[in-house]
Amino acid sequence: MSGAHRGIVYPARLPRFERFPAPPEAADRCRWFWVPRWDLPPGRTSRQQVVGFPALNLVVQSGEPVTVELAGPTTRAGHRDLVGTGWAVGALLRAAAVAALVAEPEALRDRSEFLNLPGLRDPVASAMARDDPAAAVAAFARWLVERVPAPGPVEASADTAAALLQDDPTILRPEDAAQRLGVSVRTLQRLVRRHSGVSPAAMIRRRRLQEALQRIRSDSAADLAAVATELGYADQAHLTNDVRTVLGIPPGAYRRATTGGSAPQSP
């Protein structure tokens, strides 16, 4: 998929990682599926850092036992230390699936909860035991279609708003999105919070930061002041502060860490 590494802080650290478009029958329940797989030598740890999308993810992941986790939207960079051999199959959820799985998405902000969903867990785990992520995604998609009602007008409106806020670089303020959608800013805020757990402004900030990190690591000659201007930051200092707040390092240090497609490994 296009932009498969958007939101991943150090792509060079990734184990095998794939994003799968949602099958047509499930495309109104989730945006895409993501599947990492890893097989690390004894004593080796791979730290994966992510500036996640401002949305909820439903994840089936390996372990003893295999678990199903509903992860809420994040307001900061997160990480997971991978060891041994394992896998995960996740779905970035749309509004209809969020409404079917959780009453208050804001309560899951920066946290997650485990769900007892054997009808999802078992077929996905069976496919991954065969090392067949495509079959795992197909099983996951079937479960979503069977378990989650098709979106109604409200959920469809929430998805349209989220897509605009997360994907359209011309949307620099919530007012821009509200005007494009023909609703008030207050209506937009209620709609987005109810189905994502974060505000429209937070969605814009996260998209802008993801794009900034992608530009910084992929173009070593890019002028940071120009990047800041193009992405709607007030100035370079604003970009620097945003990157430092989320990653703990300024843009220059991040660029140096990713030069050559690699980053220092965690101990």
Can you describe what's shown?
Keywords: DNA-binding, Transcription, Transcription regulation. It comes from Kineococcus gynurae. InterPro entries: AraC_XylS_family_regulators, DUF6597, Homeodomain-like_sf, HTH_AraC, HTH_AraC-typ_CS. This is Helix-turn-helix domain-containing protein. There is one protein chain. With 267 residues, the protein is of the alpha+beta class. The protein has 2 domains: 137 residues; 109 residues, Homeodomain-like (Arc Repressor Mutant, subunit A, Orthogonal Bundle). The chain contains 10 helices and 8 strands. The strands form 2 sheets. It has a 6-stranded antiparallel β-sheet. Strands 3-6 form a two-stranded antiparallel sheet.
Short structural summary:
Helix content is 43%, strand content 18%.
Q: What is the element layout, followed by pairings?
A:
Elements lengths: L15 E6 L8 E10 L6 E5 L6 E5 L5 E5 L6 E5 L2 E9 L1 H7 L10 E3 L3 H12 L3 H15 L5 H15 L6 H8 L3 H12 L3 H19 L5 H7 L5 H12 L3 H8 L9
Antiparallel strand pairs: 1-2, 2-7, 3-6, 4-5, 4-7, 5-8
Helix pairs in contact: 2-3, 4-6, 4-7, 5-6, 8-9
